[in-house]
Design brief:
about 130 residues, alpha+beta, 60s Ribosomal Protein L30, Chain: A, 3 helices, 3 strands, elongated
């Protein structure tokens, strides 16, 4: 039985006696823990935003941007300059590192990094320099 049909003549031999549905136990989900560095506690308390969540042995970081400790966007210039983009990339990686450290991890533990660019040809080299 699939746990939903009350009568299946093949299963009960065709005697016409309805069988009770089988209750299937769901596996217990891994423990979930919000990871919030001390300097972001006020954001967590006001907005319930968690920069990272640990589920089991996996740490999932939220999207990060180049904001400083006061939550101000690091200026990239107008028009954007390569130096400004580098400052923002470095700030973003500093933020990621701070979150990783709050969870007892570091960049050596990272196995996937997804990045988004508004102009990849113009920004990729600066990004790679900032990442090293």
């Amino acid at each position: 039985m699939d746990g939903y049909s009350a009568y299946d003549p093949v299963v009960d031999g065709g005697g016409g006696v309805p069988q009770p549905p089988q209750i299937q136990q769901r596996p217990q989900l891994p423990y979930r823990q919000d990871i919030v560095p001390p300097e972001l506690q006020m954001v967590y308390q006001r907005l319930h935003f968690s920069p990272a969540v640990r589920v089991g042995n996996t740490l999932h970081l939220s999207g990060q941007v180049g904001r400083d400790n006061n939550l101000q966007v690091v200026d990239i210039g107008d028009p954007p300059t390569e130096e400004g983009m580098e400052r923002q990339f470095i700030q973003c990686f500093d933020n990621v590192q701070r979150i990783l450290h709050s969870a007892g991890a570091d960049f050596a533990d990272v196995f996937q990094l997804e990045t988004w660019f508004t102009d990849m040809p113009a920004q990729l080299r600066t990004f790679m320099v900032s990442f090293t």
